[in-house]
Every structure is written in structure tokens, then in C-alpha cells.
Design a protein that fits this description.
This protein is mainly α. The protein is 80% helix and 0% strand. The chain folds into 2 domains: 253 residues, no CATH class; 193 residues, no CATH class.
Length: 518
């Protein structure tokens, strides 16, 4: 009788056998969680909030179907894993980007929540084995655990790879080495199987993110240049193919005659508890030690850098100006490549810039996210792209020009002398721009905005052509003029230009350009 009941429990098990296919699909699902969320957020232009709501609704619908099922169904189970991987990723992303919760806090909170889930699960069911999922209560514990593993894996991965500057490649390599160590410990040192399973399950999240980042990043940024769309499609097809294979072969199902022995002796329980405590201590020591070491490295870089972001954002201003040029030419293929470059360069610079001025970095980061979302949509709107680019360039300019007001008299005098020398170099070289802006002002005063917009295109093109030489002669003066020209372009190019605002922006720009031209 007991054996028959045991068989029935296996028949009603709601999860697959842990085979090589289990881990392959798990990593593929994790990668999709990274790339598909970006696809919905940026390529389709849903935005982070709408993407989270959309995926959340889909996830809970599929989760409902999973709970309604009376046995393990590969298609339903793995679709639930795919969606929970995306949803778990988005939970952490929302806390970081929309709520402003530090990744350190997210990591700590999700670690505690995951630990409490394991604790209550074990106290209630006396086992954490994946092969014991044949009751509704255990299934609730199981999927809650899966959700927290994805959220925690996202927080840890983003913390080390992005905020601490380790990068996805090195993060992925380190994760692989840890997984190999866990496998060896399980194979040769009698590491508890359930403990080993959950360690690897958590670590596959940053591993999958590293793979997704490597495949989707542009080649010049060290990736394969497949993009998030192609990467998501490839992995979804691979997941579907394996699921069909498993559904046909039933390779991932326990044999019907095999007993599910999830009971532990007192000795094995004590051993598993001691191993768990030891593993937690090791991970805490290594994790905190690595965090401190990387933080100190970033702090030393920030200490050697200027005290503010002034002068350190020129590269990003240049990239966004190139983006604006592509958008004005309706060359969105090039604009999307520039957007990839902007995202990569910003991620690389994040650790140091964020350490110098976290508040300003967050403001710039939000404006850059808006740029990426607008440019990467399936059908980009030129006016919207110009608007968000102009806003982002303005934010970058403001941060790039801000400087300490406590310069010594000697330093100020020296700077003034250098500026006077450089101004002499620019004298007489800005006449064309004065002429174009005066012509634009004439059109604005006559309410001829069609001609004014053509003049704006001519002004931007001529300014971009002259930039290398003028910027080399006097970078600060060029930046000051560039900011006023951007303001004039934004005013004239708006959907419903305001004559007074356009005239004011052009007058301000002419004042600066004339002053530098004399």
C-alpha cells in the first residue's frame, strides 16, 4: 500500500527530473529573461513599467495553468519558468530604476526573503527536494522560491557586473568556476544534493545574463552583435525544440516504478545543516570580501578623478550629438548602432561616475534610458527621438559644465588667460554660424517656421562639420556654444514652435557666438 502511494506521488509530481536538459533549458530561460525584457522595454518601446505589467499578467495566467495541472506538463512548466525569469528580472530592475533602491539593499532583502522561504518550506514539509513537489503547499513554496532566486540572481549579477565594474564576461567566468566547484564538491566531497541544486539554480541567473549580454552586445563592444531580438528568438526556438524533445521522449520524467524517497535520517539532516551553514559562511566571506575589494578599487579611481562630473561627460555628449545627426537624417539603422555604443560606454563608465556623484548620475541615467527606448522602438518617431535627445544632451551639458565655485584666485586668473588666448583663436571663425542664426531669427519673427527649420538643419550640419577643428581650438568655448545651439534647435524643431521661445533661444545663442567670434 505504501509503495502504491509512493508511486502515485511520483505520477503527480509537478516538476521534471534534474537532467542535463533541465540545466540547459534553465540557462536558456535565464538568458531570455535578460534579453526579452530589454526587447519589450526598448525595441517595442513599452517602457519598464508597462513591460513589467504585461509580463506579470502573462506570468500569473500561466502560473494558474501550472497549478491547475495534475502532473508535470513540459510546455506549461517551462513557459512558467521563462515568464518567471523575466518577471523576476523586472522586479529587481523596477526597484533599482523606478524606486531607487540600491542593489546592495535588493541583494540583502532578496537573500533574506529566499532564506525565510527555505526555512518555512522546510519547517512545514521537512524537505526542500525538487522531487517532493506533489502537493499544492509545496508547489507554492517552490514557485515562490524560484521567483526569489531570479530576483536575487539579478541583483547580485547587476551589482557585481555593472555597479562594481566587474563586467558580464568576468562575472560569467567566476559563476562558471563556482558551479564547477559545487559540482566537484557534490561528486567527491558528499555535498548535500539539495543544497548543491539550489546553489547552482541561483547562480544560473547571472550566468544566463552574461551569456545574453555577450551574444547581444555589438562586436566593437566585445560581443557577437546579435542584438536582443535575434538572441531572444534563437533561445526561444532552442527552448521550444528541447521541450518538444522532452515531451516526446519523456526523458525528464521519473520512472513510474521509482520511489521518491525524500525523507532524511537525523544524521543526514545534521550533516546538511552543517554544510548549509558552512556554504553560507563561505559565500558571505567571499561576497563581502569581493564587494569591499571592488568598491575600494572604484573609490581609488574616483579619488584620482575630478571631484565632480565636470569635463568627464564629453564623450557621451558627442555620441548623443551623433545620434541626433542620424535621427535628423532619418538614418535609424545608424542611430540604433550609436544607441548600443552609448549604452555600452555608459555601463563601462558607471562605477566611477556613480561614485563621484550618484545623484547626478541617476538623473543622467534616466535621460539616457529615455533616449535608448525612443531610438530602439520598432518604428521610431523622429520628433520624439529629437526631443529626448535634446533633453538628454541638455542634462549632460549641465553636469559636464558644472564646476567648483571655490577656485583660487590664481587658478581663476590662469583659466581666464587661457580662455582669452583660445578666444583669439576662434575669433572670425564663427561668422557663418552668426549668419545662419540671424537668418533663422528673421524667419521666426516672420512666423515662417518651415524655413526656420530648414535653417536649423543647415546650422546643425555646418556645426557638426566644423566641430573637430573648433573643439580642438577651445573645448570649453565650443561646449558653451554647442549648448546654446542645441537649445535653439530644440525650440525651432518642436511640433508647435513658440515664436517668443525660439527668438529668445536664438538671441541667447547669437550673443554667445558673437562674443566668441570677436
Amino acid at each position: 500500500m505504501a509503495l502504491n502511494q509512493n508511486k502515485m506521488k511520483i505520477l503527480l509530481s509537478k516538476v521534471p527530473e534534474v537532467t542535463i536538459f533541465f540545466w540547459i533549458i534553465k540557462v536558456l530561460c535565464t538568458t531570455v529573461g535578460e534579453t526579452f525584457a530589454d526587447f519589450l522595454n526598448f525595441n517595442l518601446g513599452l517602457g519598464l513599467t508597462s513591460t513589467t505589467v504585461t509580463i506579470g499578467i502573462a506570468f500569473f495566467i500561466v502560473l494558474f495553468l501550472q497549478f491547475r495541472a495534475t502532473k508535470y506538463i513540459p510546455g506549461v512548466y517551462w513557459l512558467t519558468v521563462v515568464l518567471i525569469s523575466v518577471f523576476g528580472t523586472l522586479v529587481t530592475d523596477n526597484l533599482t530604476d523606478n524606486v531607487g533602491v540600491p542593489l546592495e539593499t535588493s541583494t540583502a532583502v532578496f537573500s533574506v526573503l529566499l532564506g525565510l522561504t527555505f526555512l518555512f518550506w522546510y519547517r512545514s514539509e521537512k524537505t526542500l527536494s525538487i522531487h517532493s513537489i506533489y502537493t499544492r503547499k509545496r508547489e507554492v513554496f517552490y514557485w515562490l522560491t524560484i521567483l526569489f532566486t531570479f530576483a536575487l540572481g539579478t541583483a547580485i549579477g547587476d551589482l557585481f557586473s555593472e555597479q562594481l565594474g566587474l563586467g558580464y564576461l568576468y562575472t560569467g567566468i567566476i559563476v562558471i568556476l563556482i558551479i564547477v566547484c559545487v559540482f566537484l564538491a557534490w561528486s567527491f566531497l558528499n555535498l548535500d544534493g539539495v543544497l548543491a541544486f539550489w546553489i547552482v539554480y541561483i547562480l544560473t541567473r547571472p550566468l544566463g545574463a552574461s551569456i545574453g549580454d555577450y551574444l547581444s552586445q555589438a562586436k566593437k563592444n566585445g560581443g557577437l552583435g546579435l542584438g536582443t531580438t535575434v538572441t531572444s528568438v534563437i533561445f526561444l526556438i532552442a527552448i521550444l525544440a528541447i521541450i518538444v524533445f522532452l515531451a516526446v521522449t519523456k526523458f525528464d520524467r521519473l520512472a513510474k516504478t521509482e520511489a521518491a524517497d525524500t525523507k532524511q535520517t537525523n544524521g543526514s539532516k545534521k550533516s546538511a545543516l552543517m554544510q548549509t551553514v558552512a556554504v553560507l559562511c563561505i559565500f558571505l566571506a567571499v561576497g563581502i570580501g569581493g564587494y569591499v575589494e571592488l568598491s575600494n578599487h572604484i573609490a581609488s579611481q574616483a579619488a584620482s578623478a575630478p571631484a565632480t562630473l565636470a569635463g568627464q561627460l564629453t564623450e557621451f555628449i558627442q555620441i548623443e550629438n551623433d545620434l541626433l545627426t542620424d535621427v535628423n537624417a532619418n538614418d535609424f539603422a545608424s542611430a540604433k548602432k550609436e544607441a548600443d555604443d552609448l549604452e555600452h560606454q555608459w555601463d563601462v563608465a558607471e562605477p566611477v561616475l556613480r561614485k563621484i556623484d550618484g545623484t547626478t548620475w541617476t538623473k543622467i541615467d534616466e535621460s539616457i534610458d529615455n533616449v535608448l527606448a525612443a531610438v530602439r522602438t520598432g518604428s521610431p518617431d523622429a520628433s520624439q527621438c529629437k526631443s529626448v535627445l535634446t533633453d538628454s544632451v541638455r542634462v549632460l551639458h549641465g553636469a559636464n559644465q558644472s564646476s567648483s565655485q571655490t577656485d583660487s584666485t590664481q587658478t581663476t586668473a590662469a583659466r581666464k588667460s587661457q580662455t582669452d588666448t583660445k578666444q583669439a583663436a576662434l575669433a572670425g571663425k564663427l561668422t557663418d554660424f552668426v549668419t545662419i542664426e540671424n537668418r533663422m531669427l528673421t524667419y521666426v519673427n516672420a512666423n515662417d517656421f518651415a524655413s526656420a527649420k530648414k535653417g536649423a538643419d543647415d546650422l546643425e550640419r555646418q556645426w557638426d562639420v566644423a566641430e573637430p577643428a573648433l573643439r580642438k581650438m577651445d573645448g570649453p568655448a565650443w561646449t558653451k556654444i554647442d549648448e546654446t545651439i542645441d537649445a535653439a534647435l530644440a525650440a525651432v524643431r518642436s511640433k508647435n514652435p513658440d515664436a517668443r521661445q525660439c527668438a529668445s533661444a536664438l538671441t541667447d545663442s547669437l550673443s554667445i557666438v558673437n562674443g566668441e567670434n570677436k
